[in-house]
Structures are given as structure tokens and as C-alpha cells.
Amino acid sequence: MSEPEGSARRRELLEAAYAWVLEHGWAGMSLRPLAEAIGSSPRVLLFLFGSKDGLIAALLDRSRADQLAVLDDLRDGPADLATVGARVWAWLAAPGHRALLRLWLEAYTRSVGAAPDAPWAGFAARTVGDWDALLAAHQDVDDPARRALLLAVLRGSLLDLLATGDTARLDAAVAAHLATL
């Protein structure tokens, strides 16, 4: 039986595990090395989170909380779709966000095609819905296709940025698309 989700020790270990995953990614995450790195044991993690999948689900929720906080910040103030798109890109392109965005990408990729009972299931779809809602809040006329295209440009540019680091080229590409809005 897991300790209550609100326990101080659970929160402490979740934050430590989240910091570790931000630095090291999801690939090859194993309970023993993770527990050792954060000053715990696999048994304690299993007790607090129920299973490795329970820990992964908690980490995904923690990661999503960071994403939703970003969306809340970007949602503030009146802006048209091009302006909010530019603000989103500025946030995505900021070097200080690379660890979170690499983690997001890995979780997003694992989510696509995940079994319904897997901890990753639905993560990508929820992410798309979250970002679409942000963009929809800044459209005068509901245009799902235009939002989908903007989201695809932003996501594709982010993938290229994470792969190449070529900020200048991608800033220009995003700006060119935003000019069409």
C-alpha cells in the first residue's frame, strides 16, 4: 500500500527523482541507480509510488505540471495567434528550457502507441490538447486547422532545435510562418 500522495517524503523523493530524470532522461531509468542517486532505496520508492510504473506516472504528472505552468504564463494578456505563437517559440527556444523539453520529447515519443495501461498512455494527446487550448484562447475565429499548423511548426522547429541547436535558422523559420498568420 502506498503512503498518501501528499506525504512529505513522497514529495521530497518525487522532486529529487524529477531533477534526476531532467538531467538523465527516461532512457534506461532503473530503480536501483535512481534510488541511490537520490538518497533512497528501491523498496522505499516502491512503497511510496506502488510500482515503477507508479513512479513514472508521478514523474509524468510532475513534468506536465511544469508544462501547464508555462501555458498559464503564456495565456496571460490579450494577444493574437501570431503574438502568442512568438511568445511560445521564445520560451521553447530559450536554452534554459532544454532539459525539460528533452524530457517532454522522450515522454511524448514513448506515449505514441503506448498500451492503454502503460504510464505513458495519453501523455502526447493531453499535451496536444493543452497547447491547442492555449492557441484557441487567442483566436478571434475558431480555426482548428490554423492552430494545428502553428502547433506543428512550433513542435517541428523544437525537434530540429533539440537536434541541431541551430537557433538562427529556426527563429527565421518560425518568424516566416508567424508572418502568414
From TrEMBL:
Domain spans labelled HTH tetR-type: 7-67
Pfam families cross-referenced by the UniProt entry: TetR_N (PF00440)
InterPro entries listed in its UniProt record: Homeodomain-like_sf, HTH-type_TetR-like_transc_reg, HTH_TetR
Coiled coil: none
Keyword list, A-Z: DNA-binding, Transcription, Transcription regulation
Binding region for DNA: 30-49
PROSITE patterns attached to this UniProt entry: HTH_TETR_2
Domain of life: Bacteria
Protein name (Swiss-Prot/TrEMBL): TetR family transcriptional regulator
Gene source species: Actinomycetospora chibensis
Taxonomy of the source species: Bacteria, Bacillati, Actinomycetota, Actinomycetes, Pseudonocardiales
